[in-house]
C-alpha cells in the first residue's frame, strides 16, 4: 500500500503529517541533548564529589586503616564511574545528536522539494480545469445565440410583411451563429479532452509519485528514530560492563574492611608502652611515728593538688637547688635563647627531632620509620652516584659523547647529599638505640605512684637517697632507685657525649633537676612537702638548716616560659603531678625534656600557687617569643 494510491486526495493532510514527523524528530533530538547535559553534569559532580572527599594531607596517618583504604578505593571507582558517564555523553553527542541533526536537515530539504513539485502539479491541474470551464461557458453562450438566431430566422421567413432582403439577413445571422456555436463546441470538447488526460495523469502518475516520495521520507524518519533509540541504548550497554566492574570494585572494597585489623592498628598507633599503675598499698598508721603518720595523712589529702610551691604561700617559696640555672642576672635573655633553640630542634609537624615528646612505643616506631626512610634515600642516592660515576668513565673514555667535567659537579653534590644522609642515619640510629635502653615505664608518673619497701612508704631526699620509715627506724637502701633518676642519668650522659636529643640548652635545667633532687612527677619534684623543715624527713643537713636558713634560700616565683591550654581533663594520681580541667589555662614554667611531662603552675586562691607536672600530650603550649 502506498500513499499515492490510497491517499490521492489527501495532499494537504500529508503535508501536515510530514511536517509534524520532522518536528517530532527534532523533539527527540532535544531530549537527547538534555540527557547529554545531565550525563555531563552528573559526571562532573561525581568527579567533584570524589575530589572533595579525597583524604587530606593531615589525614594521611589514617590511611593505614582498612576502612579508610576501602573508602579511597570507592572514590577511585566513583572516578571511573564518572569517566563512563562522560563516555556516554560523548557517544550520544557523536552518534545520536549529529545523526539526528543530519537526518532532520535532509528530510526538510527533500520534503520541501516534494511539496514544491506537488504544488506545481496542483497548479497545472487547476489551470486546465479553469480553461475547461471557460470553454464550456463560451460553448453554452454560442449555443444559446445560435438557437436564438434560428428562431429569429423562422419568424422572419413566415412574416409576409418583410422583404426578401430582410429575410436573407436573418438567414446569414443564423448561419454565423450556428458556426460560432459549432466552434465553441469543438473548443469545449478539446479542452475537456485535455483536462481529462491531465487529470488522469495527475492522479495516476504525477501526484502519486510525489506522495510516494513523501512516504519514503516519512518512513526514513521513522526508521531513523528507531535506530537512534537503539543506538542510545547500545551506548549505555557498551559501558555497562565497566560500570559493573566499578560496582564490583566497590563491593570488594567493602569486603576488604577488617575491623580486627583496624583495632590492632589503633593499638599499634596509640600504645604508649607504659605499664599500668600498681596497687596502692595499705598504710598502717599504728606502725609509724606520729610525724610520719601526720605526713602520710597530709600526702593523702593534698598530693592530688599540692606540690612544693603549693604547701607554702605564693610569696614565700623555697628555692630548688640546682634547677633552672639559666635564671640569673640575664635570665630573660637566656629563656628566649632556650626557646629559640627548642623551636629550631622541632620537625616540620611540630614534633621534636628525636621524637622524645612521644611515648616510648610511638617514639620507637617513629624512629624506625625515619631510619627506613633514610636508608631508602641512601639507596637511591647511591644508585644515582653510581650512575654518574659510570657516565663519567664513559665520557673520559670517549670525549665525543660529553665532557666529564660536567658530571663532576653533580657527582660532588651527590657525594655531599649521601654523606649528609649517612650522618642523619647514624644520628637516628643512636636515638633508637637510646630509646630501646629506656625502660618501658620510666616516663609514667602513675607507674611509680608510691615507692614502697615491704609495705612502708619511702621518702626521697634532695640528694636522691631514700629512707624507709619502718617500725624499727632502720635505713634501707632503695634497690629499685628512681625511674626518673635513671632517665636523668641517661640525659646527663647524652649531654656529656654531645648527643642531647633536643639539641638545645633547655634540657640542662631538667638534667640539673633530676641530678639534684630526682625531680620527676614520681619522686614528688624532690622538694615536696616531705622535705620541708620540721617535717621529720630529709637529710640531717636539711634539718639542721632551721627556719632561718630555709627562708634564706627563698626566691621569687619562676618566670613562666609561656602558657598552655588543657585539651583533656587530667586527674593527678601521683605525687608531683597536678590535676587540670579541659580548657583550663596554665602557666608553663618548665618545658618537656623528653619524658612526656611538662611542669605548669596556676593560681590557687586558697593556697597561693599550685605547681606540678601534667602530660605533654594533654596540653597545647604557646611559648613566649
Automatic annotation (TrEMBL):
InterPro entries named among the record's database cross-references: AH/BAR_dom_sf, F_BAR_dom, FCH_dom, HR1_rho-bd, HR1_rpt_sf, HR1_TOCA, SH3-like_dom_sf, SH3_domain
GO biological process: endocytosis; signal transduction
Residue ranges constituting the SH3 domain according to the UniProt record: 559-624
One GO CC term on file: plasma membrane
Subcellular location field: Cell membrane; Cytoplasm
Keywords, ordered alphabetically: Cell membrane, Coiled coil, Cytoplasm, Endocytosis, Membrane, SH3 domain
Domain REM-1: 357-434
UniProt keyword annotation of Cell cycle present: no
Biased amino acid composition, Acidic residues: 468-478
Region: Disordered, residue numbers: 275-301, 437-544
Keyword Manganese: no
Compositionally biased region (Polar residues): 291-301, 439-453, 506-540
Signal peptide limits: none
Record domain F-BAR: where: 1-262
Coiled-coil region(s): 122-201
Membrane spanning residue stretches: none
Gene3D superfamilies named in the record: 6.10.140.470, Arfaptin homology (AH) domain/BAR domain, SH3 Domains
Sequence similarity: Belongs to the FNBP1 family.
Protein name: Cdc42-interacting protein 4 homolog isoform X1
Source organism: Glossina fuscipes
Highest classification ranks of the organism: Eukaryota, Metazoa, Ecdysozoa, Arthropoda, Hexapoda
Record gene name: LOC119632105
Amino acid at each position: 500500500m502506498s500513499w499515492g494510491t490510497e491517499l490521492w486526495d489527501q495532499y494537504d493532510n500529508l503535508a501536515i503529517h510530514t511536517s509534524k514527523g520532522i518536528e517530532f524528530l527534532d523533539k527527540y533530538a532535544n531530549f537527547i541533548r538534555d540527557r547529554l547535559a545531565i550525563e555531563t553534569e552528573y559526571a562532573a559532580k561525581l568527579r567533584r564529589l570524589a575530589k572533595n572527599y579525597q583524604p587530606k594531607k593531615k589525614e594521611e596517618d589514617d590511611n593505614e586503616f582498612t576502612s579508610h583504604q576501602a573508602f579511597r578505593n570507592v572514590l577511585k571507582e566513583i572516578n571511573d564511574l564518572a569517566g563512563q558517564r562522560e563516555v556516554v555523553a560523548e557517544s550520544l553527542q557523536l552518534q545520536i545528536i549529529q545523526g539526528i541533526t543530519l537526518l532532520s536537515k535532509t528530510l526538510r530539504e527533500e520534503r520541501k522539494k516534494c511539496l514544491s513539485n506537488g504544488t506545481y502539479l496542483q497548479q497545472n491541474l487547476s489551470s486546465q480545469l479553469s480553461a475547461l470551464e471557460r470553454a464550456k461557458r463560451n460553448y453554452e453562450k454560442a449555443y444559446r445565440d445560435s438557437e436564438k438566431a434560428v428562431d429569429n430566422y423562422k419568424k422572419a421567413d413566415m412574416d409576409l410583411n418583410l422583404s426578401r432582403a430582410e429575410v436573407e439577413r436573418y438567414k446569414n445571422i443564423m448561419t454565423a451563429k450556428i458556426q460560432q456555436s459549432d466552434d465553441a463546441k469543438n473548443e469545449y470538447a478539446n479542452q475537456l479532452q485535455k483536462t481529462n488526460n491531465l487529470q488522469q495523469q495527475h492522479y495516476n502518475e504525477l501526484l502519486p509519485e510525489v506522495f510516494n516520495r513523501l512516504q519514503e521520507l516519512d518512513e526514513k524518519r521513522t526508521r531513523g528514530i528507531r535506530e537512534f533509540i537503539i543506538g542510545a541504548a547500545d551506548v549505555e550497554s557498551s559501558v555497562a560492563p565497566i560500570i559493573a566492574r566499578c560496582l564490583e570494585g566497590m563491593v570488594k572494597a567493602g569486603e576488604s574492611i577488617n575491623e580486627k585489623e583496624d583495632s590492632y592498628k589503633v593499638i599499634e598507633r596509640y600504645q604508649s608502652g607504659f605499664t599500668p599503675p600498681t596497687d596502692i598499698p595499705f598504710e598502717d598508721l599504728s606502725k609509724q611515728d606520729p610525724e610520719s603518720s601526720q605526713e602520710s595523712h597530709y600526702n593523702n589529702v593534698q598530693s592530688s593538688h599540692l606540690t612544693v610551691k603549693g604547701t607554702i604561700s605564693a610569696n614565700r617559696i623555697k628555692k630548688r637547688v640546682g634547677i633552672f640555672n639559666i635564671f640569673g642576672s640575664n635570665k630573660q635573655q637566656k629563656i628566649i635563647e632556650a626557646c629559640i633553640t627548642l623551636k629550631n630542634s622541632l620537625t616540620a609537624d611540630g614534633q621534636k627531632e628525636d621524637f622524645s615528646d612521644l611515648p616510648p612505643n610511638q617514639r620507637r616506631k617513629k624512629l624506625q620509620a625515619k631510619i627506613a626512610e633514610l636508608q631508602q634515600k641512601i639507596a637511591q642516592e647511591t644508585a644515582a652516584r653510581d650512575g654518574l660515576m659510570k657516565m663519567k668513565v664513559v665520557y673520559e673514555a670517549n670525549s665525543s659523547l660529553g665532557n666529564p667535567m660536567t658530571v663532576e659537579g653533580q657527582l660532588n653534590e651527590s657525594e655531599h647529599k649521601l654523606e649528609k644522609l649517612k650522618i642523619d642515619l647514624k644520628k637516628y640510629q643512636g636515638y633508637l638505640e637510646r630509646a630501646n635502653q629506656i625502660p618501658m615505664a620510666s616516663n609514667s608518673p602513675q607507674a611509680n605512684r608510691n615507692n614502697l619497701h615491704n609495705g612502708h612508704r619511702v621518702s626521697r631526699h634532695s640528694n636522691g637517697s631514700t629512707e624507709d620509715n619502718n617500725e624499727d627506724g632502720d635505713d634501707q637502701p632503695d634497690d629499685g632507685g628512681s625511674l626518673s633518676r635513671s632517665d636523668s642519668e641517661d640525659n646527663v650522659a647524652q649531654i656529656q657525649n654531645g648527643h642531647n636529643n633536643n639539641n638545645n640548652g633547655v634540657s640542662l635545667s631538667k638534667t640539673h633537676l633530676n641530678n639534684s633532687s630526682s625531680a620527676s612527677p614520681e619522686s614528688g619534684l624532690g622538694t615536696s612537702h616531705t622535705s620541708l623543715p620540721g617535717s621529720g624527713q630529709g637529710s640531717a643537713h636539711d634539718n639542721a638548716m632551721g627556719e632561718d636558713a630555709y627562708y634564706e634560700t627563698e626566691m621569687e616565683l619562676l618566670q613562666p616560659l609561656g602558657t598552655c591550654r588543657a585539651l583533656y581533663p587530667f586527674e593527678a594520681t601521683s605525687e608531683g603531678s597536678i590535676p587540670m580541667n579541659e580548657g583550663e589555662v596554665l602557666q608553663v614554667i618548665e618545658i618537656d625534656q623528653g619524658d612526656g611531662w611538662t611542669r605548669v603552675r596556676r593560681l590557687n586562691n586558697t593556697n597561693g600557687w599550685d605547681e606540678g607536672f601534667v602530660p605533654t600530650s594533654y596540653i597545647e603550649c604557646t611559648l613566649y617569643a
